[in-house]
Amino acid sequence: MKRRLFYFLPLLLWMGLIFYLSGRAGANDNSLPLLARLLERVIPGMWARLDAQNIDDVNFIFRKSAHITEYFILTFWAFRALQYGKARIAIQDIATGAVIAFLYACADEFHQAFVPNRTSSFGDVMVDSIGVALACVIVLLWKGHQSLGSALFPSSLKGGEE
Known about the structure:
The chain has 7 helices and no strands. Helix 1 runs antiparallel to helix 4 (52-82) and helix 4 packs across helix 6 (122-152). It is an all-alpha fold.
């Protein structure tokens, strides 16, 4: 039971964090203080040189990047939970993890439709899906790398046997 919890708890906690964050007011102005601090640390003096349109553009990219990142992470946690007890992740687990993350993105947008000062947008589901797809590609590439390694170095040769 503890081992199963070890695999599923991060997924559930991440889903809870997404739900919590989507229940907060979503005005663009809410991300500006964080964005200003981050940009000033990376490129000192840059924030002061931006005009209002540039700030809106950078904030838009920042917010959409956050969507991609949160669903990229959610998809990895789903893969990890589905891998419970298996030596390697299977293709059907990758597909199932992607479906879980996509459906959660849909549910998140539905939830936002009922939150004051938030809007529901299928466009955001599509942005979230970029994170899901990136996670799938990385896991598939890793899986392919492992398979290629197995083909080049069969287990009978790994232990020094000939």
